[in-house]
């Protein structure tokens, strides 16, 4: 009888998110992929408006709609990839979950 050890294969945040969305019957669009890449490019806390502003920076060149940012943040939170860490001035602050 053969025994195989299970290997833990590291997935990128984009791959994890793609898998989560697929399980919900939702596809990973280019805009959603750009948002995930931006969220996980740093492990700092942020709110949705800060993320929209970062992505609207002409030097970044990754403009996406505000509604897509908010929707994607919600899905990232549902997927367990992002967690709400606080609230200030009616704004929720998030932080990427570490591995």
Question: What does this entry show, briefly?
Answer:
This protein is an alpha+beta fold. The protein contains 4 helices and 3 strands.
How does this model look, in words?
- This protein is α+β, with helices and mostly antiparallel strands and 99 residues long.
- The chain is built from 4 helices and 3 strands.
- Strands 1-3-2 form a 3-stranded antiparallel β-sheet.
- The N and C termini lie far apart (33 Å).
- The mean pLDDT is 87.
- Average pLDDT works out at 87
- Return the string of H and E elements: HHEHHEE
Query: Strand arrangement, largest sheet?
Result: 1-3-2
Number of helices: 4
Number of E strands: 3
Q: First CA to last CA: what distance? A: 33 Å
Strand content: 15-25%
How much helix, percentage-wise, in residues? 40-55%
| Rounded Rg | 15 Å
Q: Tell me the overall shape.
A: globular
Supply the helix-strand structural class.
Answer: alpha+beta
Biggest sheet record: 3 strands, antiparallel
Low-confidence stretches: none
């Amino acid at each position: 009888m053969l025994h195989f050890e299970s290997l833990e294969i590291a997935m990128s945040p984009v791959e994890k998110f793609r898998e989560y969305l697929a399980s919900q019957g939702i596809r990973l669009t280019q805009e959603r992929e750009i948002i995930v890449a931006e969220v996980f490019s740093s492990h700092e806390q942020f709110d949705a408006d800060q993320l929209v502003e970062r992505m609207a920076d002409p030097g970044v060149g990754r403009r996406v709609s505000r509604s897509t940012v908010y929707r994607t943040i919600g899905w990232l939170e549902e997927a367990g990839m992002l967690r709400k860490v606080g609230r200030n001035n009616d704004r929720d602050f998030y932080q990427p979950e570490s591995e």
